Give the backbone structure.
Amino acid sequence: MNTLVTGAAGFIGSNLVDRLLAAGHYVTGVDNFSTGQHYFLDQARAHPNFRLERGDILNKELLISCMRDVQLVLHMAANADVRFGLDHPTKDFQQNAQGTLNVLEAMRICKVPTIAFASTGSVYGEASVIPTPENHPFPVQTSLYGASKLAAEGLIQGYSEGFGIRAYIFRFVSILGERYTHGHVIDFYRQLAEHPGSLNVLGDGTQRKSYLYVHDCVAAILAALDQDRQGVNIFNLGTDEYCQVNDSIGWICEELGCAPNVHYSGGSRGWIGDSPFIFLDCSRIRGLGWQPRLTIRESIVQTVRYLRDHAHRIESALASF
Amino acid sequence: MNTLVTGAAGFIGSNLVDRLLAAGHYVTGVDNFSTGQHYFLDQARAHPNFRLERGDILNKELLISCMRDVQLVLHMAANADVRFGLDHPTKDFQQNAQGTLNVLEAMRICKVPTIAFASTGSVYGEASVIPTPENHPFPVQTSLYGASKLAAEGLIQGYSEGFGIRAYIFRFVSILGERYTHGHVIDFYRQLAEHPGSLNVLGDGTQRKSYLYVHDCVAAILAALDQDRQGVNIFNLGTDEYCQVNDSIGWICEELGCAPNVHYSGGSRGWIGDSPFIFLDCSRIRGLGWQPRLTIRESIVQTVRYLRDHAHRIESALASF
């Protein structure tokens, strides 16, 4: 199948590219390299079925030129860090909502029948039902990131109804694993690498969060696409567990062999809009036979090992953020 | 209070302006007159507390220049017709989502504390719970109009959480009454004015819809604002009843004194994304003591009388659409 992956040089996008190529698909990758990394695509670039287009999803003409004869768009490009929305209030909207509209317009013009979209559990805001099912009561947004992904979901749904596009919307918990580039594990890793005796934590450490290993995430996306469904299909993606930030700190420190003094700042939330309890009901994707291979603890440890093994590259990559 | 009304020359906006002025507020009206009508503001322009700014909400600088010392923004400007989204797929998004983001950015910069927003029952898509409460299960969008309003709601909620803006989000059913400019009553009125013996109807006539009289809508908005609530406040606005399209046809024909042959086209939906049953649970706004004065039948008849009394002006206004 001819596929197009936006955000192909990103954390999840590049893992998806590798998996699609391994499954025998042709892949066109699009990335503006604002946060994507060339070396994430080292393996893909060596593959004859991979083509890379450097460019921005805000450039609709570029998208149109890439979508000829494409059967499936996997739209992973995004401003992906929920925490910093308030520092640049229009950025999430431009990158995530306007960008998705461009992808949809290019699909409509090029008659691409199917989209898979990386959404987020952040669209539930502070969920009132936990574990949170896909049909949770109409949520109130608490972050500009969540709002921008909600806007993108709505656009995809409107295009699905209006133009017959098949849509797979995946609401992720936080993803961990190889090529991980942002989030608490990297924050803690970097702090502890610099001064192993001290760790500053946003929030009081009791926030309960869910995580999923990136290879499990990619496997879930492909499992859902294999079902070949019509219309709009929404799936939470996560594990059937959660952990406290303090649990995560313990596992990271154990792996790194350090015992820092931990300094907490803020209250029960790490930042404005932080949800103190994220735990998604993933029975719908489980019902397709998919299950995660790694626990949260295993995926955190795997991520720490990846960061340690790639310390030099990660520091140079982070400098580009 | 210093207020700013976007879409001030529109159907709902201009009625709101008149009511705010009557209540003693200062009003700055903004309108690009793409569909707004100068004569809707005849009464307002004669009032010393009214100021009109001709301009587009896509012009953020204009909004900033208008919001100095404003305490309340009533954001009514929108591309407001749900039916034609597929003819221009990016228009709803630009006008309704990007436009709202500009309003919010101007509010943030000018430190305006409160927004009232004209949203829509269309955000429920095809509701699974009827009458539909505000906390209906997370809906799937079926129109680009609904999607654009959902995006705007999410942005408002994100700004409320992030910047402390108080938000009143009103999900309207279809509004009827004086200065009504689009929808089935005007479509039917115009057809019957031209040839009283024949009426073409989108759908099979059994679609069940809800309507609210514009003066009742404006009164509900002001009743909610009077409560002075914090955070995000969402209210459905409608009557505690619905009617079939065929009921409406009967009332319109009775008022006009005609008995046309009715020709139905399409199936149970009038257009792609049309919801065949719209009926909102309005107990939350009722709980504030508000109640509508006109029934659906009375507001349809009132609208027909208004259209008949303003036939000439309406035809010249419609030519500008």
